[in-house]
Design a protein that fits this description.
The chain has 160 residues and is an alpha+beta fold. It has helices spanning 93-103, 122-134; strands spanning 5-13, 19-23, 28-33, 39-43, 48-54, 58-63, 68-75, 78-81, 85-89. The chain has a 9-stranded mixed β-barrel. A hairpin with a 3-residue loop joins strand 8 (78-81) and strand 9 (85-89). The chain is globular.
């Protein structure tokens, strides 16, 4: 397993039904449901973009400048990104549980982290979407989407 940089975050549901995400490195992000299963976001550093679930555990992040990176949701509030960053949700119960389990036995109880793809062709992305639709899972059934956005804390990853 390649080395990765861990970055914790917490989410707060705001009155306007957006989510205010605070990262441990000081960055802040405001997230809103977009069309379909997407989540649009903007941060306090002038960046913005769209997160889209591709199938069951793969997330595509498209930034305003057109750059793309992929994430693999790993359960327990963890998403490993193709740039080597592991985001960990500290605001959800499963995120806190994942942090505890990672500390016990060096994370062996969580299972191995699997790197997401570095890149996908448009055809490969579409195939992932189709597989999810055929299985009835859709992108919205991924372990960490905002399926229960209303409580602000019920999700594992929320597209870390």
């Amino acid at each position: 397993m390649a080395r990765y940089q861990q970055l914790a975050y917490t989410d707060e549901l705001l009155a306007d039904d957006t989510v205010h995400r605070r990262y441990a490195d000081g960055r802040q992000e405001w997230r809103r449901r977009g069309p379909g299963d997407t989540v649009t976001w903007q941060d306090d550093r002038g960046d913005s973009g769209i997160d889209e679930p591709l199938g069951r555990r793969i997330v595509k992040r498209t930034r305003r400048d057109g750059s793309i990176r992929y994430g693999r949701e790993s359960g327990y509030g963890r998403t490993l990104w193709s740039d080597g960053v592991l985001t960990v949700n500290r605001s959800s119960f499963n995120g806190r549980l994942g942090t505890i389990l990672a500390g016990v036995a060096g994370g062996a109880l969580l299972g191995a982290l699997v790197m997401p793809p570095i890149s996908l062709s448009p055809e490969e992305e579409e195939e992932l979407r189709n597989q999810a639709a055929q299985s009835g899972g859709g992108g919205g059934e991924a372990d960490g989407d905002y399926g229960d956005w209303g409580d602000g804390y019920g999700d594992d990853d929320d597209f870390g």
